[in-house]
Amino acid sequence: MKELTVVVGAGGIGQAIARRVSQGRHILVANHTQSSADEAAKVLENAGFEVTAMQADVSDRGQVQAVVRKAQSLGPVKALIQAAGVSPSQAPIEAILKVDLYGTAVLLEEFGKVMAEGGSGVVISSQSGYRMPALTAEQDALLATAPPEELMALDFVKGVRDTLHAYQMSKRCNSLRVRGEAIRWAERGARVNAISPGIIVTPLAHDELYGERAAFYQGMLKKMPAGRAGTPDEIAALAALILGPEGGFITGSDFLIDGGATANFFYGPEAQKH
């Protein structure tokens, strides 16, 4: 049996990472709809990969467990790419929390039980996790280690005010969750990390750049030190380092890759307005 890469949420970034790290491997694509999974699988197959596609809603533990079972039937899981998520302009508060916060926690928990030795996982988080004010040490610990089913019931999670706050809370949780899971994954000789991208040219970013918060995102794009948006392949280059043998000393970390947008937000000429 071939080694396996599992891609959950195979959009622009997920596919780019899968192409970068999956030479000689089978790829299992799990997307929210079967049609989108099939579409992603076709692109990867046309690029020379052997692919299996399935539908899975990451906000449903039973469906996540079905992905794990399918993965185990195909081969040893050497890489998990968690790129599933919805943005503040795409979904209401509860859906964002269920997919981005709870769903990611469940995926990390379930795949942490089956990762092959030497395997590695990466969660695609977001720069948004860095925009929210600091939480207490106790709150951070809860986001990192509380059972997934308890996350949604936490007072400070239930108290999110709007979709942007829900997204920021979810991404803060992603960053912390890989710290908590890294301890458990290490028991299997596996590693797990997160990447927090800024504005990357994908369909999700397009929804933000032209959605209800278009002015904010367009402004961010103009002001960021890099002077441009990023590409999925730039995220994939970082992911390949983290997932591969040269990243063998990296686990429990989150990597901000946003063209300097967060630096500008906190320390740029307009930072005092926040």
Description:
By secondary structure, this protein is an alpha/beta fold. The chain has 12 helices and 7 strands. The chain has a 7-stranded parallel sheet with strand order 3-2-1-4-5-6-7, sandwiched between helices. Helix 1 (12-21) links the parallel strand 1 and strand 2 (26-31). It is globular, with a radius of gyration of 18 Å. The model has no long low-confidence stretch (mean pLDDT 94).
Primary descriptors:
274 residues; alpha/beta; seven-stranded parallel beta sheet
Short description:
This protein is 49% helix and 14% strand. With 274 residues, it is α/β, with parallel strands linked by helices. A 7-stranded parallel sheet has the order 3-2-1-4-5-6-7, sandwiched between helices.
